[in-house]
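Appendix B, Record 12. Input sequence as logged:
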Amino acid sequence: QVQLVESGGGLVQAGGSLRLSCAASGRTFSSYAMGWFRQAPGKEREFVAAINWSGRSTYYADSLPKGRFTISRDNAKNTVYLQMNSLKPEDTAVYYCAAVAKLVLHNNMSPNEYDYWGQGTQVTVSS
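Logged structural output:
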């Protein structure tokens, strides 16, 4: 199992950037595929990005314009990141880090595919 703690959220103006971090406990972090999800008020939790155990393969939601968000991981630090650029008010949500011991990933991940979740970090983008 793994414990996840997100950080890096906050208030940012439209067009700005934020980098979210997800710190994982345990020495088996590199065995897990990681993902980022977000949930806006009144909406379902939706997939943002995923990364495999090695960090070599990444996947992004089809609805997300290429280049705005970038997922990465540093297994030496047991940390996964989500770099967010050109933020828009519609990006406002609670962002969650998730983990699962699996190898097969795609660009349409479901929350049900993940076993472990962080508590989330609030991202608010102002107009």
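The two ends are 40 Å apart (CA to CA).
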